[in-house]
Amino acid sequence: MKVGTVVEIKKHEYRVGLTPKGVEAFVKHGHQVMVQKGAGEGSAYPDDLYKAAGAKLVDRAEDVFAESDMIIKVKEPLEAEYKLIREGQILYTYLHLAPDRPLTDALVKSKCIGIAFETIRDRKGGLPCLKPMSQIAGRLSIQEGAKYLEKPFGGRGVLLSGVPGVPHAEVVVLGAGTVGANAVKIAAGFGAHVTVLDIDLDKLEYLEDIYGGTITTLYSSPQNIEGILPTADLVIGAVLIPGSSAPHLIKNAYLPTMKKGSVIVDVAIDQGGCSEASHVTFHDAPVFVRDGVVNYCVGNMPGAVANTSTNALANATLNYGLSIADIGVAAALKKDKGLLEGLNTFKGSITYEGVAKAHNLPYVPAVDVIG
After folding, report:
1. CA-to-CA dists, residue 298 to 147, 275, 291, angstroms
2. CA distances (Å), origin 82, targets 85, 335, 342
3. Domains (range + CATH), the chain
4. CB of 70 closer than 8 Å to CB of 88
5. Which of 138, 172, 257, 330 could connect to 179 by a Cys-Cys bridge, CB 3.0–4.6 Å?
6. pLDDT, tens digit, for every residue of 3-16?
């Protein structure tokens, strides 16, 4: 199979779909790999490493798309890339289609095979290709939130840990999944007082067992969310419904009740955000202020730590990619039901129910389209 990766054109996206080690693995399996020049530089992988691994270096993304049977990316295609995707081509990347109707329409129109990292399942029902980025985003959310709590960055001027004689910062985490658990870990490590909310009592019990009385757990009801937000210095939006739009748990009406200079980091922004006020921002202008609250809504947070993120992502996605290349996409999907969960579009059909529901479009089960 001919496999390709390109420079990510999303603003301030520094990750890359294939590492040189990944190229080497595909080549050893007998596949051809094309890499657009400069694709790995943002992740500290220069072109000479790809060349040494056996990749063919090309100047233009158009050439990579034109020659490749499978495109391995990190972020969803942007409008400039829509016209490059062709019928039957495998697009293996994060897609986040539920909040993005134009991209959904483009993939359906192209009749490509869209396999989304974020909906692939493992044998335990987990999300193995989303997990490493969720771990990074959860940890990074506290790092970024702590920075924007500083007065020069528009925040209240609060130190998460406090100091003897001064209260610790109040951190509220909405969601106790992978993002939330990692946010709790870092926030608690900083010495903040942490309250985490979720509707899954087992997850809350697990976190309470780990941290004992050092954190507070609450059931995630509208009343509890509305009641806790006015106490918060930093709020982490860590809500996920795989493949579907995130619920708006933070209503616009709640923002005026919050402390002036408090910070919301909406990690769910890739799926539309869990705050009604949220809209996508970028690393060069990551925040906006509404009703006195600083909102951080960067849609590709892990891109800020591109070397770490690229390596973590490659660890999770490489073997699935090799399976697709080795035995063909249909055989790979039939062999692995978890990989089949990653199929979002197939030759003009939407094959992930959450995406179809989000856009009120026809849904065709994945098992039906692959025969």
Report:
1. 14, 13, 19
2. 6, 30, 20
3. 2-120+306-369 (3.40.50.720), 131-299 (3.40.50.720)
4. no
5. 138
6. 999 999 999 999 99
**Which residue, chain included where needed, has tokens 């062999």?**
335
Kindly report the pTM of this predicted structure.
Answer: 0.89
Catalytic residues, which ones?
A: 96, 270
Q: In what order do the strands lie in the sheet with 287-290?
A: 215-219, 193-198, 170-174, 234-237, 263-266, 293-296, 287-290
**Residue that has been written with the tokens 């067992």 in this structure:** 209
Q: pLDDT tens across 284-314, in order?
A: 999 999 999 999 999 999 999 999 999 999 9
Buried b (16+ CB within 10 A) or exposed e, 185-224: bbbbebebbbbbbbeeeebbeebbeebeeebbbbebeeee
| 37-61 as b/e: b if 16+ CB within 10 A | bebbebbebebebbeebbbbebeeb
Smallest CA-to-CA distance from 341 within 136, 104, 126 is with: 126
Q: Tell me if 237 sits within 8 A of 274, measured CB to CB.
A: yes
